[in-house]
Amino acid sequence: MRILDLTNCTRLRLWQPVHAGEGLDTWAIDGLVLHSTTPLGVILTSDFQQLNDQGSSWLSWFGGQLHSFCSRDDALVFQGELGEQLVFTGDSMITSETVLQFEVNVGCGTTDLSLEHPVRLEYSIDGGQNWHLVVKCC
Question: Can the keyword Hydrolase be found in this entry's annotation (predicted)?
Answer without folding.
Answer: yes
